[in-house]
Structure formats: structure tokens, C-alpha cells
Amino acid sequence: VFIDFGCSLYVKENRNEKTKTERFGTPGYMSPEMKSGTGEVNLYENDQYSLKETLRRFKFILELHDLIIG
């Protein structure tokens, strides 16, 4: 977790297990499963999706910086 603003908590779950949860967070970083709002989400996959999206956006910013600054 980079920043959790005090709203995250530890959940013990096995891989491929789904956890009942609420749709909570920044939509751009939510997995499609979380966005669907079904209430049952694989938290491992959701976290992986969020990290991938964070890194993708960070890479874009670096590329944009290189393009502008040179």
C-alpha cells in the first residue's frame, strides 16, 4: 500500500478466494471485478491490477517528461 488514508485493513484470504467487499476506492485503479460492484472480489487480483495501473501511469508521466524536457 502506497497510501491508505487509514481506510485499509488486513484481510486473511487464500489465493483465488473471493471476499465480500464494498465498491470503495478510485475507479481508475479498481479492477473490472471491483468496478462491477458484485460484492465478491479476489483481493489479490484487485491489488495486482491497481499496482499495474499505478506503474503504467507512472511510466506515462516519465515518458511525457522525457518528451518535454528531452
Mind telling me the C-alpha Rg? Answer: 15 Å
Overall pLDDT confidence: 84
What is the number of helices?
2
How widely separated are the two ends?
32 Å
What do these coordinates show?
This protein has 70 residues and is mostly helical. Helices cover 46% and strands 6% of the residues. It is built from 2 helices and 2 strands.
Quick take:
This protein has 70 residues and is mainly alpha-helical.
Q: How are the secondary structure elements laid out?
A:
Elements: E1 19-20, H1 32-36, E2 40-41, H2 43-69
Antiparallel strand pairs: 1-2
Please supply descriptive tags for the structure shown above:
mainly alpha; 70 residues; single chain
